Amino acid sequence: MKLTFVGLSCFLIEDKKGGRLLIDPFNDTPRWTLGLTLPKKLNADIFLASHADADHSYLDERFVEHKQRNDEKHTTNISIFPDLNLRGTLVKEWNGDLCIAYHFTVDGLRCLHLADNSHPLTKKQIKEFGQIDILFLPMTKSRSENIDVELKIIGQLKPKIVIPSHTIPLPLKTVRRGYKVVYEKIKKIMLPHKNPAINEYSFGIFSYMLLVANNLTKKISTKEITGCNVEIKKLPSKTTVYYFDKCSAK
């Protein structure tokens, strides 16, 4: 399996047969952008959107990885993602809005993308998710560095890999310099795009998300990923945070 962090909550997941799954692509048009522009070449076979917010839902036909037919006969044989076992479970944002948390299997590894979930999981949700190997975990939307919710979810699911999501990444060495440094970096990324909805609150929220991710790295074994992608051939022996210091969006 190959994972590419596109940015925010968007990830491109590729299986060993060449299948490409894109989850939560964000709207990068001037009215909606949060400072990141999607890569020009971003193609996939399967697209998932957890909810209708602009930073989680933006589909365009230019993303479609069209398959060339070998013959004129229709076929039901699907070689890519043969054991995807795609499921969806309802979760809630901090404000109570509903999202779909997708769980699926790629190359034998069970993945869970928690969308914009901001709450500890219920017994029913945990039962629906089952055993999770790779957890895409959104950082709490609050002006706080508190990681109680994140640690609670990790303890509930016990994944082998935890990937912080819903972030505009910066290198850990930068994040560890503190809020003021992170705030100015995030501001320089977001402000030039002139989205009328972006303000000081936005800069603060995304700064604290990185500080939350940083606090996770202090509590849990961490592998900092240099760049925006990583190939996963086997799972670590204990829960490990995979922290991407970059994303493929610019």
Could you explain the architecture of this structure?
The protein is α/β, with parallel strands linked by helices. The chain has one domain: Ribonuclease Z/Hydroxyacylglutathione hydrolase-like (Metallo-beta-lactamase, Chain A). The protein is 21% helix and 24% strand. The chain is built from five helices and twelve strands. Strands 5-6-7-8-9-12-10 form a seven-stranded mixed beta sheet, with helices on one face. Strand 5 and strand 6 (98-106) form a beta hairpin. Helix 4 (179-190) crosses helix 5 (200-219). The radius of gyration is 18 Å and the shape is globular. The model has no long low-confidence stretch (mean pLDDT 93).
Rg of Cα set: 18 Å
Number of strands: 12
- Secondary-structure element order, N to C: EEEEEEEHEHEHHHEEE
So what's the overall shape? globular
Indicate the structural class. alpha/beta
Helix content range of the residues, please?
Answer: 10-25%
**Major sheet details:** 7 strands, mixed
